[in-house]
Write a structure and sequence with these properties.
Layout (H helix, E strand, L loop, with lengths): L10 H34 L11 H7 L6 H20 L19 H25 L10 H10 L12 H20 L9 H12 L5 H8 L10 H25 L2 H6 L1 H15 L18 H24 L1
Length: 320
Amino acid sequence: MEKLQLPKMTTFGKWTVMILLAFILIWPLTVGLYWLAYKGYTAIDQTKFPFNESNVQTILNDTKPESSVAMKGNALVESIINRLEAEMNSTFGWSVNDLIISPTRWLDNRANRQRGVIFSTRMLTNFFSTNIAKYGKVDAENELLKAAREKHFAFTEDSWWFPSSENEFEKGIELVRKYGDALLAGDAIYNMRSDDMYNLLVFITGNQFMDQPLGLLVQPDDEVAYTQLDDRIYYTQGVVLVLRDFLRTFVYLYPEIKEKGGEDNVRVAFREMEHICTFDPLLVLRGKHDSVTADHRGKIARYLIHVRERINDVAQSIRR
């Protein structure tokens, strides 16, 4: 009885199998190596920022809702500059302006986060100086805050030298702290009224502030290069990091905001901000329509829209 002879595999067939096997094996290996490298990086440079690790916690421990007006004002300006100072004191410092020969120049996620941080710091400092640190609209600004916002925080974020961005931002932080000291000494003005609370929240949700990062997130996919997806996500994270510190302090020191605006609105707004501040996928993906892959930019946009709508609801409740 003859044995059944199986057809021999051709050379082409062998190469095809080998290529398929290599393709099947190389992806898990590549992803695994990337995961290990990224985990190593996150061990030395923070990429997620839960609120319970923020230095603002110390501010809230030292200042209470029943504290003096001056102490509340000082706590609020400290919450504005907290994230900017934390970025400059981080493992790799202010990396937006690093030279092209520096390895940290290629850490674009942290660089875009820092761009969002300085944008948000500028916006809040501007509003505080022109609305809250004086008694009336026609009154002169506090000279310390005016210099901080016009000369130092307004300085470009990518200057390496003559002068460097870090030096200018540090001078701005120093001036803000001098305002806080003057406030505590009774030599400066802090005037937070009900209409200021409303105007502040409207400013935050308006086209000068939150609409700016939101526009970067909702722009149509065919107008955004794949390489820009993570830039826009981490820029938004930087904006929200500053905003979260400030609003957490603001709502804590003025509990009437939560009472009038609704605890649920405040809770959801902070929950969505926390999602943004701790967002750090291994790879940023762009899922289209009914794609099986994640749409990370769209997810951050939804979080931000929820934050904006809830804060707007709080503002309208305060106005009534």
